[in-house]
Amino acid sequence: MQYLVSRPVGWKAGESYPVVVAIPAAERDFAAYCKHFVHARGNRRFLIVTPYVLTDGGSRIRGIPEYPYDSDTWDRIEKDGHWRFDLAGLEAVLKDVHAKDGGKEKAFVTGLEAAGHTVFALAFDRPDLVAAAGPVAPNYQGRWLASAAKGPRPQMIVFAGGEDPGWAPGSPLFEQTEEAKKEALSRGFGAVQTHIVPGKGHEALAEAVLDWFESLDKR
Q1: What is the pLDDT of residues 142-174, one digit of tens each?
Q2: Which domains does the chain have, with CATH numbers?
């Protein structure tokens, strides 16, 4: 797996930094999404990481220009499956960022809409890799659910914009999120709350998400 990483202002070798994994929606504009979180970070100490995951949307993605993978990698992906590639890749990325950039071993994870498929699967399948999860107006269809993982569960809050036209009871995103909350409870997570950000629409809500991650990192 390849990825983008941005070190915070004043980064110093040998120090430890919280990691935010920020995953875009099905449009897969990885660079722009990463830059958005870099801008929202300001002077916070976060390492911003955007991995080129495959599971944030539809599966017919081989060769689309947003991905940097060569034909050999695509052959491996098609043999192993998208989630197997993503799960192994995300674990490898976090180890890489830990070794090279001083990232903490567990990451804060967020993503918009179709990125929810990846965020929920990672939190449910490998909670040991996740410090906290903050999906934003997420999709959820129960993809890639493994058997119940061992160990403590990370905190999780769903974020949504108060002016998001697609976020209301009866809408697909809202109803899918309710199913994700039920699944979280069945897997030993605490009750998952939804935080509505006033005045915001269907967007990454980076500032609100980073504020929450920062409050957890200070504990």
Answers
A1: 888 776 677 789 999 999 999 999 999 999 999
A2: 3-217 (3.40.50.1820)
